[in-house]
Design goal:
Blueprint (H helix, E strand, L loop, with lengths): L1 E2 L2 E5 L2 E2 L2 E2 L2 E4 L6 H4 L6 E3 L6 H9 L3 E2 L1 E4 L4 H10 L4 E4 L15 E2 L3
Parallel strand pairs: 5-6, 8-9
Antiparallel strand pairs: 1-2, 2-5, 3-4, 7-10
Length: 110
């Protein structure tokens, strides 16, 4: 199934309404990649290597949060140092915020 050009691997898309969804075949110009997404959506973006992945994260105008799942703690901390985001998660979901703590994003997410 396709949703506005992206391939839906799991989940559903009802027009502009996205339920918990996993998408692939997304492009930088699609609204879900070019605008800040506030929905339970994951876009799978292939990267050739670690450096390419860091560049992809930093290549957007947004920087609310990011994360990495890895067994390599050195790589995890390297990613945390290199990406420009307000909240960085290592082997955890992005729902681990603490509301009493001040937090925010970088760039257009700040």
């Amino acid at each position: 199934m396709r949703c506005r050009g992206a391939v839906v691997l799991a989940g559903t898309c009802d027009g502009a309404m996205l339920h918990p969804t996993v998408l692939t075949d997304v492009t930088d110009t699609m609204p879900l990649m070019a605008e800040e997404m506030f929905a339970p959506v994951v876009c799978l973006v292939p990267c050739s290597d670690f450096t390419d992945a860091i560049a992809a994260v930093n290549g957007t105008p947004f920087g609310l949060s990011a994360g990495i799942f890895t067994r390599d703690i050195d790589r995890a901390f390297a990613a945390a140092r290199q990406v420009t985001v307000g909240l960085f998660n290592i082997n955890n979901t992005s729902s681990n915020r603490a509301d009493p703590m001040p937090y925010g994003g970088c760039s257009a997410s700040g």
